[in-house]
Amino acid sequence: MEKCAIITGSSSGLGLEMTKSLLFSGYTVFGGSRSGTDLEHDNFYDVELDITSEESVDEFFETVREFTDKVHLVINNAGICEMTSLSDTSTESFEMHLATNTVGPFLLFKGLESFIVPGETHVISILSTAAHYGYPNVSGYNASKFGQLGLIQSLKKEWKDYKIRFTNLFPGAIDTPLWDKVGMKASRDKMLKTSDFMAVFNFIVEAPANIQFPELTFLHKDGFLE
What we know:
Helices cover 37% and strands 16% of the residues. By secondary structure, it is of the alpha/beta class. It has a 7-stranded parallel sheet, sandwiched between helices. The termini are far apart. The model has no long low-confidence stretch (mean pLDDT 93).
């Protein structure tokens, strides 16, 4: 295997689109998700993964190790978002945001370390402008994304001797089926399209290895969505 990638949340939405793009680019891809996908490709391994479970994450990496001990690209993508006012947000919902969006990446990175290729591995995290910018009615999501960013910033310094790249992507709102689930009424015309996101993602993945993009924020031309 020349190039191996791991992607979490690979079964649908942006995760599935990124998976398809990486396969097209020649990567062997280990996709982790709870629900799996119908995607069939000789270089795609669809692996069950509950990012909130340490046991599940350990089993995921055990499966990866059956095929390779080197991971060149990591897409930290799995996440959840629910929209409710603080007063209507249950403690269970708030904790699930933290478990998925903050503790999940913590478990992912712990399992990843032994697969790092010094000087080569590239870690791309799909964050959100919500990791920098407070939005109303998403307290759990905001808190968990701020937490994930802090985790990554700490890890970059801890792993500096590996000389690997970290890229944090902070997209604005993207027009995906997620908005149907959360019930937001905002105009889809002021959201990025999936193709917009993929244009940025592919640019980052295909950029020369001697270039790093530590943080990249990109929005619809009309700006932040309130």
